[in-house]
Amino acid sequence: MALPRRRNLSYNRFRSLVKFISAISGVLLILFAFLSFLAPSPNESQHFHLRHHHNSFNAVVEDPVTSGDSVFRNQSSGGKLDRDIWSSRNAKFFYGCSNVSAKFAKAEAVSRPTRYLAIATSGGLNQQRTGITDAVVAARILNATLVVPKLDQKSFWKDASNFSEIFDVDWFISSLSKDVKIIKQLPKRGGKSWTPYTMRVPRKCSERCYQNRVLPVILKRHHAVQLKKFDYRLANKLDTDLQKLRCRVNYHALKFADPILEMGKTLVHRMRMRSKRYIALHLRFEPDMLAFSGCDYGGGEKERNELGAIRKRWKTLHKNNPDKQRRQGKCPLTPEEVGLMLRALGYGSDVHIYVASGEVYGGEETLRPLKSLFPNFYSKDTIATKEELAPFSSFSSRMAALDFIVCDESDVFVTNNNGNMARILAGRRKYFGHKPTIRPNAKKLYRLFLSRSNMTWEAFASRVRIFQRGFMGEPKEVRPGRGEFHENPSACICEDSEAREKATAYSRGKKNGKLEKEVMVSDDQNDYDDNDEPRWPDLDDDENQVWPQEKLHYNGTGSDYDAVISDEPELEEMLSD
Question: How many angstroms separate the CA atoms of 246 and 238, rounded?
């Protein structure tokens, strides 16, 4: 009887063990099925790897990226640097100077009563600003009376504002009265409105070009000429007095209308209430901009399809090699890359950032890494109410003017590409004290961003600081006469030699005859090597040269899409600011 009982007991134990194992197996199977459901497909996994490899703007940048023994983890603080990140070295030795010289005759002595020049500007706010500035100089060259410029109301930007709704027209006329006679509209002839003869001049037209092409038309035929599509229609290099006139127009005469000025000051005040200092970022990352660039931003097949569909709207654009575009520095930095660059340059997570941008491709997902790096993230829409912005929100140029004011007043200005607004602000900030203006050295940073997972944060940050030498808005970064005059107004930047000599003498006495590096950098040894200097072209043009419409307008950093000249008017206008 004992034997059957033992067998029965063993059998029961075996059945219990089988049930237990079956239960565990069932749980494991259910868990495996659940995990399989959550796991990405092979294609999605490959897509994620591609996005990470190309520094996706959707990556979570606060997480460490490990590779071997190195760990790339950005620091929340800017770290300790041997320089002031909120000011330009040697700025105190330079100042803006655009006073008229004794040999520059007054307008009343040179203006001819039967010569009138009218212009029609082109593009967005900042491209129109360059046109207005150059129009005043063109009128002076022709000894003509200038009619207040007509703003572009029909382009991509579709802003119906006239000159007086953007700028203070009375101040514009009165402040330049000694240089050029300006009137609000053409006088009537025989009681009837006077329609001027319309024509175009080549891009980069010199003094002689205007005298040979435009003046004969005024003198012999019509006495009043309107130059249409007036953008970049004046040579980069001119007589010094004419260059200084350019500066008087751009930096003194072109003052925004009171409603824009007051709202702009309000936005600046609200940024100052939040923080003593702030950075302004002009972020060009709109779908149209990215489609035109032909670059790969790590968004995989979805991105290629979306941007490719936009690109097809412009038949004249050819297919680009994304890697080649980025190697040549022609791709705008992503918001994440801008954030990493700023952190590497010493700006910590407590820094306040004002962002001036249009529609950002990818929306909040694209901006998340930048906001993670800099949580104190603002725009005009977040520091002003809809009611306050209502008088401006239906007008793209007025909204752009508000951003212009906040960016101009910022302690540090940074851009992710070198568009018209970035160039004009760069020149303006040099003129008014060389406030730090950061332009990405996109050619050098490209490889660094691509390989950042293979280095420590310290190594990455060190390389960023090296690559950005010559791109920080310091005095004499760019040699006089190189690049666009609106970005490098060298004829209007003067040096305070007396203050410089005193600082040098003081430093020598303090260091027993050795010049202290922090006080002064010598003329022949700036803070970057010649190999790192931006490759600025000589933009002088022969006065008789006819510029083809297909010619690409060059920029200093190789990433300027706004000034492209093409057979697609909408494309040129869209990229203008």
Answer: 10
Return the half-sphere exposure (C-beta side, CA atoms, 13 A cut-off) of residue 265: 7
Same domain, 282 and 225: no
Q: Which residue has the tokens 């009043």?
A: 224
> Partners of 88 in the beta sheet?
none
Residue-wise pLDDT tens digits, 500-540: 666 666 566 665 554 444 444 444 334 344 344 444 343 34
Q: Which helix (H) or strand (E) holds 120?
A: strand 116-121
Local structure of 46: helix, strand or coil: helix
CA torsion 336→338→342→347, rounded to 10°?
Answer: -60
- End-to-end CA distance of the chain: give it in Å, rounded: 100
**What are the CB-based long-range contacts (under 8 Å, 24+) for 298-305?**
298/50, 298/51, 298/52, 298/53, 298/54, 298/55, 298/56, 298/57, 298/58, 298/334, 299/51, 299/56, 299/58, 299/362, 300/47, 300/50, 300/51, 301/47
Residue 399 burial by CB count (10 A; 0-12/13-18/19+): exposed, middle or buried?
Answer: buried
Helices 396-408/125-142 angle, 10° precision: 90
Instruction: For residue 172, tell me if it sits in a domain.
Output: yes
Q: Report yes or no on 39 lying in a domain.
A: no
For the cut 90, the answer to whether the pLDDT of residue 244 exceeds it is: yes
Q: Are residues 242 and 275 in the same domain?
A: no
Q: 370 and 286 in one domain?
A: yes
Range of the domain at 147: 107-256
Looking at the fold, whether 239 and 342 belong to one and the same domain comes out as no
225 strand-pairing partners: 117, 197
List the single range of 29-33, 75-79, 485-489, 492-496 with lowest mean pLDDT: 29-33
Closest listed residue to residue 439, CA positions, set 367, 333, 514, 521: 333
158 confidence band (pLDDT: 50, 70, 90): confident
CATH, residue 189: 3.40.50
* Closest of 414, 440, 428 to residue 281, by C-alpha: 414
Domain check: are 282 and 190 in the same one?
no
Q: Quote the mean pLDDT of the chain.
A: 81
- Shared domain for 273 and 422, answered yes or no, is yes
Q: Which of 221, 256, 291 is the last residue of a domain?
A: 256
- Is the pTM of the predicted complex or chain greater than 0.90? no
Task: Kindly tell me if the per-residue pLDDT of 175 is higher than 90.
Answer: yes
Quick one: 250 and 263 in the same domain?
no
380 and 245 part of one domain: no
The enclosing H or E element of 183 equals: strand 182-183
Number of domains in the chain: 2
Would you state the pLDDT for residue 20?
62
Residue 535 lies in a domain: no
In terms of residues, how long is the chain? 577
